[in-house]
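Q: Predict the assembly, please.
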Amino acid sequence: MASSPYFSLAILFLAALGFGLAPLGLAVAWAKLVSPAKPNAIKNAIYECGLESKGDAWVQFRSAYYLYAIIFLIFDVEAVFLVPFAVAFTGLGISACVAMLVFVLLLAEGLAWAWAKGVLTWA
Amino acid sequence: MAVEDKLKIELGKQGVFVTTVNEIYNWGRKNSVWPLQFGLACCAIEMIATTMARYDLARFGAEVFRPSPRQADLMIISGTITKKMAPQVVRLYNQMAEPRYVIAMGACAISGGPFKQGYNVLKGIDRYIPVDVHIPGCPPRPEALIHAFMTLQAKIDAQPLTGTERPRHLDAAAMSEFPVPTQGAHDLEPPANRLVWPLPAPVASGENCG
Amino acid sequence: MSHSSTAEMKVYRPPVVDIIEEGDELLEVAMGPHHPSTHGVFRMDVALDGERVIRLKPVFGYLHRNHEKIAEKASYLAAMPYTDRLDYFCSLTNNWAYALAVEKLAGIEVPERAEYIRVITAELTRIQNHASSIGFLMQEMGASGTPLMYAFREREKILDLFEELTGSRMMCNYMRFGGCRVELPTGWLAKAQTIVDGLPGFIDEIEALLTGNEILMARTQGMGVLKPDLAINAGVTGPMLRATGVNYDLRKVDHYGIYDRFKFRVPLGDHGDIFDRYMIRILEMRESVTILHQAIKDIPAGPIMDPKSKIRGFRPKPGEAYGRIEAPKGELGFYLISDGSGNPYRYRVRPPSLINLTILEDMCLGQNVADVVLIFGSVDIVLGEVDR
Amino acid sequence: MLGEGILKGLGETAKNFAASFVSKDRLTTIQYPEERAPVIENTRDFPFLVYDGEDKMAGLRCVACQICEKECPPKCIYIVKSTDKKPDYVGKPQIYPARFDIDISVCMSCQICVEVCPFEAIKMDTEFELSTTDRFGGLLYDRDQLARSNQHYHKIHPTEAAEVDARLAEEKAKSEAKAKAAAEAAALKAAAAAAAPKPTPAPAPAPVSVKEPTA
Amino acid sequence: MKSTEEILALIHAALPAANVELVLNPSPCAQHSLRVAPADAFAVASFLRESDELALDYCSNVTGVDWPDKEITEKVKVTQLVDGEEKIVEETIKRIEPGYLESVYHLYSIKRAHEAIAGPVVLRMRTINRTDQVQLPSLTFVWRAAEFQEREVFDLFGIVFTGHPDLRRILMWDEFEDHPMRRDYVDPDDYEYEPTPHDEVLKRAEQQSKPTGVTA
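A: Predicted assembly structure:
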C-alpha cells in the first residue's frame, strides 16, 4: 500500500486540507459549545444605515449588468482551459501554440464585438 | 492551576510559553478590537486624528474601521447623540455581533455634556445600551482615547471564561436585545431603558426611578 | 452674468431625469445617518435606476444640538465656547464671526494687535480646514489613507500652535468681544513662522501627489457642474461659489478686520465642477500663506484687549446686528437681537454648509451613486454647522 | 503620456518612504504609552482647586462666591456654602465651600471659570488619562479630589503661576499695609483721646477694619 | 449701496401700492430694516432682485423671531372725580400687547458687490398672531437660498410659508409636534438623574429625592 506512487501525494493533500479546515472547525466548535447563540428580531433585521429598511431589493435592474457578468464568465473559464497548456508549455511544439492561439483569438474577437456593440457601457 | 507569573516569565525566557485557554482567548480578542466606523460630531475628528500617523491607533490593532456593524466588535460613540439619532444608535448596537463593547467618547456621549440643556439631546447613551469605558473631555485628546483603549483591553483581559463573572456574550441568560426607542410627539418613548440605566445606589432606592 | 428672467423664476426645479418611463421600479435606498461617505450623521434618501440617481432628498437634523436655544438661555460670554462646536474644524473663525457680530451690536473697537492675531489664526484655520477637506475628498475617491495622512500631518502642526496659544487643539474659545483672551506666548510667532515656511513645501507635495493624477482628473472634471446664476440664487458661498467664476470673497467685499492691508488674490474657477473646487482650495491655501507671511512680519506690539470691554455681566444696548465673515466653508453669519438684558434675545447662526447643500440634488441628478459621494464630499460640509 | 501624473504621485510617496530612513522628522508617530509628546504649557483639560501650604482645607483659596457656578456654560459645578468661616491667606475669615462638586462628564474644559474667578482659586489641570468604567463614581469629583497644591500649579503652568503668585503677594502686601495704616490711625486717635480727656465721653475707638482684599 | 431710506424711496417709486415702512435699529451698526406687508412681499422681493440699480440677487440669511404677548403697564394720566372736584390721578393700567411671529431676510448684492458697501438690506414680515394665523408668503421662488432656511423657520417657530415647494420639518423628526425655539416652549420631562443639578432640574431633583452626589 505504501509503495503506490500516489500515496505520498494523498498524505500531503490531507495535511493541506487539515491545515486549512482545522482552525475553522475549532471556531465552529467553540461557537457551538461555549458561546451561546442569542439571535433576536432587531439583530437579524436588514442593516440599512441604522434605519429600518423600507421597500425590498427585489427590483428590476438594468440588463447591462447581467451581460457584464456573462462576458466575465467566458474569460474566467478560458483561463481555466489555459492552465494545463501553461503547465506543459515547455514540452509542446509549435502546433500546440497555434491551436491555443486560435482559441484565445476566437474569444478575443467575441469581446471586441461585444465592446463595439456597446454592451460594456456601464451607465 | 494558577501559574505563578515568575515561573511564567522564567519559562518564557527559555522559549517555553505556559498559558491557559482563557488567557489566549482574551489575548486574541483584546489585541484585535475592530471599531465600527461611526462618527457623530467633534469627537469623531479626534478619533480620526488618533488613527492618523501621529497617534497611530494601528499599534493597538484597532485601525481597521469596519463600516458594517456585522464585522465590528467595538462601537466608539464619538459625539452628541441627539434624540433623532438615538434609535439608529441603539439599532446599530443591536446589529453588532456579540461579543461587542461600547466606548462612550466625550462628554456628550456620557451625559449629554455641554448640550445637555438642549431639547433634542439625549443625556447620555447609557440610558439605552450598556457602556464599557467612559472618556471625559470635550473632545478628549487622542492620547486619552488610546488610554481608554488600554482600559478596555485591561477589562477584556480580566474576563473569565466561566463562572458568574463571565462576560455577557458567554452568558446565555444575559440580555442581548436592547429595545429601540420610538420617536413620540414630544420625546423618545421610553425615556430610558430601566434594565440598563445605571442609577447610582442612593438615588436608585428613591422613588424616582419609576 | 445673465439674470434669469421672471418667467424662468417660476421654473424652480430642473426636470427629473427623463430617461425613466412611468411604472419603472426605482430602488429606494437610504445613504443613511450611518454611512462611510457622509462626513458624520447626514442622510440622503436616494431613488436609483440601476446606478443612476433619479431623486435625492437630503435629511438633516441628526446632529441638531439646539445651539441657538442654549445660547439664548446663556450669557453672551457663555455662548462663545459653544461657537467652537459649530464647525468643529474651524473653531477660531467661528469665534471671530460671533465676536464680530457682538462688536457690531455693541460698537466695540478692537486694538491693532488683536486684529493681526485674528487674521493669523483665521488663515491658519483656513489652511488646516482646506487640507483636511481635500484629504477627505480623496478618501472618498478611493485614495484611502495617503492624502489624508499627509493632510493630517500638517494639521497636527497647526493644532500644536493653537494648543500653545489657546490651550486646546480644536476648541480654542480664544476671542472675546473687543480682542483676544491671551497674549501670544513667547516664541509662538517664531514657531508659527517656521510652520508657515514649511507650508508651501507641503502644498507642492500635495499638488505633486494629486493634481496631475489621471484618475483624479477623470473622476472629477465635468462632474457635479454648478452654473453661476443658480449658485448665486441658491445662496452658495465660499470656494463652491468661486469655483463657478463668481468673484465674491467677503475678505475683499466686506473689508472686515484688516484684510485690506494685505495683498492677496482670490482664485476663481471657470467650470464649477469638482476639480475646480479642489483647485480653488489648493490656491486658497497658497494665498493664505502669503497673507500669513505679511501678517507675521508686521504685527505691532500693544494691548490685545479693548480695556473698556467687560467679560462678565456684558449687557449691550437694545438693537440688532448681523455680522458675517469669510469662513473656510463660506459666509458664516451671526444675527443677534439684544433686548438690553444679559443674554441675547435672538441668536441666529447663518450656516454656510446647510445653504451650500440647497442645490445638492440639482448637481447629483443623473449621476452615478459613486459620483454622488464625490459631489457631496466636494461641498465640504460639517454636520455641527449644518444642524446646529 | 497617460499615467505620467500617477507616476509623479508614486514618486512623491517613494521619496517620502526613502527619506524616512534618512531624516528623522518624517517619522511623526508618537508611541503613546512609552514615549509621550512634551506637555504644552497652556494645555487645559479639567479644573482643579488651588490651595496654599500643606493642609488642603486650611489653604483652600475658594470662598464659595458661586460666580463660577453661575458663569459655567454647561452648568457642571455644584457648590454648597459652609456655615462657619475660616481665615484665608490674608487672615480675614471667609466662607469656604462645604461641597464643591464638578461633574467632569459634563465639563467642556472651556476655562471660563478660571477667567471669571476673582480669587485665583480655580485653575485648569493638564491631566487627561481619566477614562473609567464607572459612570457616577469615577466622573463626579468632589472638593477633596479637586484640591491640588500651589506647587502642582507651578509645575504644570510655570509662567502663569508665577504671575498669579506675584499678584497675590502684592495684594497681600497692600492689605497688610492698609491694616498697618488703619492700626496707626486707631492708635493715633486713641492717643489723642488720652492726651485731651474732655468732659464729653471718649469717642468710641474706631473699629479696626481690615479692608477687604480687592474682590 | 444706498441707505435704507433711499431703497424705501426706490420701492415706493416702483411699487406705489406696496405697504413698506422703515424700522429703525438703535444699535451702533445702524442696520435699519424694511417691514413689508405679507400681501405684497413677493412683489417687493422680485423688484429688489430684478431692479438693475439694486440687484439684490443674494439672500444671505432667513431668520424667525418670536415676539410673545407683552404685558405693558403704563402710567396714564386720568382725570377723575375725587370727592367732588376734578383731579389728575395717575393710574397704572395693564395692557396685553398681542404677540406675533416675524421672519427676517438679509439681502446682499453679488452683482454690485465691489461698489460701495453698506449694511445688509433687511426685510421683515409679521404674522397676524402666534396661534392660528401664522401664514407668510414664501420667497423661495425669488431666492432659492431661502428654501432650507424657511423650512427651518417652519420647523422651529411654526411660521407656515405659503407657496413653499416642500415645506416639511428639516431638523426635528416628523412626528414631533411642538415648535421648540418659541419663547414659551416647555422642555420634555426626560429628567432621570444629574450629579450637578441646577435651577429647574434642581427643583425636580429635590421633589424626587435628596439631590445627593454619590459621595455626599
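Chain C touches chain B at residues 32-36, 40-41, 61-67, 69-70, 73, 81-82, 85, 88-89, 148-149, 152-153, 155-156, 169-171, 383-384, 387 (CB under 8 Å). Chain C has two domains: 6-59, 67-387.
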